[in-house]
Design a protein that fits this description.
By secondary structure, this protein is mainly α. The protein folds into 3 domains: 98 residues, Serine Threonine Protein Phosphatase 5, Tetratricopeptide repeat (Alpha Horseshoe); 73 residues, Alpha Horseshoe (Serine Threonine Protein Phosphatase 5, Tetratricopeptide repeat); 63 residues, no CATH class. The protein has 14 helices and no strands. Helix 2 runs parallel beside helix 4, helix 7 packs antiparallel against helix 8 and helix 8 runs antiparallel to helix 9. The longest helix has 20 residues.
């Protein structure tokens, strides 16, 4: 279903855009450093192209030159994550964190690994750690919001979505071609869509609010009186495009 595909980007839209956000390493000799960086660049290119086996081969060569590289471990984890080899991805992200306990991107990515395996408590813990280390990490807010919706904590999840939207109002649109995520439980998908509609309504963005109201409708949402009852819709409630939903 198209709506499911779109909403999935709210979860870990995020993890695949960490290619350039890794911590710097020590200072090997210039020749070794040049070869190391060449393998990382080539691997990152393969990763973006979906050639995961080739990417892992390049990252392996980089790690052979510098086994303590958090960048190489993080990128290896991303490649395994793309292949849904979550055990290997977890190993590399944990290694990156061991090497650098302040590596926010690795915590964010590790949160994604746990969420994909329905390990909600661990996912929540890792994503909150990522945010504590990097308060401007937009992807972590959206990922955490989706995790919280999945466990029935809609109010708290909405609060994290609101923070993500405040940091980057166009995040969902920009990540619409990078879709990997988890299945929403029961009515949580329709509620998630409605939550996004409410958040955009609060900013006066009628177009985006209506977009997500339509997605909520496709996902089975039917409690349209909430548009009248909830204050976030006050700015756009009388717009004809919004009022049409009150007709059922």
């Amino acid at each position: 279903m198209a709506v499911t595909k779109y909403i999935k980007l709210a979860f870990l839209g995020f993890v695949f855009f960490c290619l350039v956000s890794c911590a710097r390493q020590g200072k090997p000799n210039p020749e070794t450093a040049a070869v190391f960086n060449a393998h990382l660049r080539q691997g990152a290119d393969y990763l973006s192209q979906g050639s995961y086996a080739k990417a892992l081969e390049e990252f392996g060569k980089a790690l052979a030159l510098n086994p303590a590289s958090t960048r190489a471990h993080n990128l290896s984890g991303l490649a395994y994550f793309r292949q849904k080899d979550y055990r290997s991805a977890e190993d590399h992200f944990l290694k990156a964190i061991t090497l650098n306990p302040s590596f926010a991107s690795a915590y964010n990515n590790l949160g994604g690994v746990y969420a994909m395996q329905n390990q909600w408590d661990s996912a929540e813990k890792m994503l909150k750690k990522a945010i504590s280390l990097s308060p401007d990490m937009v992807s972590a807010y959206f990922s955490l919001g989706a995790v919280l919706f999945n466990i029935g904590e809609a109010e708290e999840g909405t609060a994290y979505f609101a923070k993500g939207i405040a940091l980057d109002p166009d995040y969902l649109e920009k990540r619409s071609t990078s879709v990997v995520g988890l299945s929403m439980r029961g009515a949580s998908l329709s509620e998630l869509c409605f939550a996004f509609a409410k958040l955009f309504a609060a900013t006066g963005n009628t177009e985006r609010a209506v977009e997500f109201l339509n997605k909520a409708k496709q996902a089975g949402f039917h409690d349209w009186q909430r548009i009248v009852q909830e204050r976030e819709f006050e700015k756009i409630r009388d717009d004809p495009k919004v009022r049409q939903f009150l007709k059922g």
